[in-house]
Design a protein that fits this description.
Layout lengths: L33 H8 L3 H15 L4 E11 L29 H13 L4 E6 L9 H13 L3 E5 L5 H10 L3 E3 L6 H7 L5 H14 L2 E3 L2 E3 L5 H12 L7 E6 L16 H14 L4 E4 L8 H9 L4 E3 L12 H11 L2 E2 L20
Parallel strand pairs: 1-2, 1-9, 1-10, 2-3, 3-4, 4-5, 6-7, 7-8, 8-9
The structure holds S-adenosylmethionine, 6-(5-methyl-2-OXO-imidazolidin-4-yl)-hexanoic acid and iron/sulfur cluster (SF4).
The site of iron/sulfur cluster has 8 residues, from loops.
């Protein structure tokens, strides 16, 4: 299996190929260059947010946000050496304790609560390099059970073979999360136990199985702007954009090698979200980890920049997420409503194309 093509030359829309034909905000492209992306990052903030909003409104209702809830179905003890992760067995100073794979019924009980709290998608994560074949029956039962509750399903279990991806699809899995995490160059600084190509191969297996792809990364790990640009270039130049793009702000956990790094300027986080929105116009962009430590104003700027998905519920995998009442108060102040299932890939979005009349 070869890695996904990162340099598909053909764009889906008119391009400036020396013909003078320019692209409009929201045209779908897969041929982004580093220079173009860095130029987006360097725009004045108001211009960047305006372009992101214009792009966003072409495909989505700007006042709706998709809401997922996360559960760690197998915590800690992971053989991988991701420097940001409290669940890696390599960082013995991390406070996270390893657990076994949860029982199916316990997962379903948690999922019911998440549904009652307003989540439309249930995301189950395991601290694995890859699922063992002996675990597949259990994760399949979890997918089937959550679907029966009437929720969309997402899993993040590490690397998948084509056969495992096929099994998950057959069970009815809607989304698979597998992040590229950073640029290809910076990735080597963060993880040594697998390669960037391994990540891309799993994404290809997920795509080939017909499961929606959820892939994004983390910022604030000491990478440079060129790495944030490189990460988005990898994602946007895939043959098909991921349907879901989580942008995580690093949550620093004691004992991990990245603990104590200078925090990323929050406005640079907003820029990363806005550039992701511009480059992947129809994708749902998730304001993912780190909201617990973000002000209302910062989160509002991310929504202005085109973020339209979040995790709700008091916990992510091992760390805290805002309490439901706090989130509800924020949504009320911002006039944000939950996004209905089925509209998240843009196909049913209202015809509010601000460029259509031009
Ligand atoms: N083990 C699987 C894997 O790595 O693909 C699935 C679980 S892993 C925790 C899922 C993603 O969570 C990682 O790829 C990373 O992007 C994100 N993540 C993990 N720890 C994080 C942290 N401390 N802060 C922000 N994001 C984090
Ligand atoms: C993703 O991109 N972010 C989520 C989800 N995919 C699995 C995980 C965030 C984890 C934050 C650290 C923790 O709670 O352990
Ligand atoms: Fe393991 Fe995933 Fe954490 Fe890496 S990010 S250590 S693969 S749980």
């Amino acid at each position: 299996m070869t890695a996904l093509s990162q340099e598909t030359p053909k764009a889906d829309s008119l391009r400036d190929m020396g013909t003078g034909a320019a692209t409009a905000p929201g045209d779908i492209r897969h041929d982004w260059t580093r220079e173009e992306i860095e130029a987006l990052f360097a725009k004045p903030m108001n211009d960047l947010l305006f372009e992101a909003q214009t792009t966003h409104r072409r495909y989505f209702d700007p006042n709706t946000v998709q809401m997922s809830t996360l559960l760690s179905i197998k915590t800690g003890g992971c053989p991988e050496d991701c420097k940001y992760c409290s669940q890696s067995a390599h960082w013995t100073g991390s406070p996270v304790e390893a657990t076994k794979l949860m029982e199916v019924q316990k997962v379903l009980d948690e999922a019911k609560q998440a549904k009652a709290a307003g989540a439309t998608r249930y995301c189950m994560g395991a601290a694995w390099r890859n699922p063992k074949d002996r675990d597949m029956d259990t994760v399949v039962a979890m997918i089937e059970g959550v679907r029966e509750l009437g929720m969309e399903t997402c899993m993040t279990l590490g690397m998948l073979s084509p056969e495992q991806a096929g099994q998950l699809k057959h069970a009815g899995l809607d989304y698979y999360n597998h992040n590229v995490d950073s640029s290809e160059e910076f990735y080597k600084e963060i993880i040594t136990t697998r390669t960037y190509e391994d990540r891309l191969n799993t994404l290809q297996n997920v795509r080939d199985a017909g499961i929606n792809v959820c892939s994004g990364g983390i910022v604030g790990m000491g990478e440079g702007r060129q790495d944030r640009a490189g990460m988005l270039m990898t994602l946007a130049n895939l043959e098909k954009h991921p349907e879901s793009v989580p942008i995580n702000m690093l949550i620093q956990t004691e004992g991990t090698p990245v603990f104590g790094l200078d925090e990323l300027d929050p406005l640079e986080f907003v820029r990363t979200v806005a550039v992701a929105r511009i480059m992947m116009p129809k994708s749902v962009v998730r304001l993912s980890a780190g909201r617990e430590w973000m002000s209302d104003e910062l989160q509002a700027m991310c929504f202005m920049g085109g973020a339209n998905s979040i995790f709700i519920g008091p916990k992510l995998l091992t760390t805290d997420n805002p309490a439901q009442e706090k989130d509800q108060a924020l949504f009320d102040k911002l006039g944000i409503k939950p996004m209905q299932v089925g509209t998240q890939v843009g196909e049913d979005a209202p015809a509010t194309d601000p460029l259509a009349a031009e």
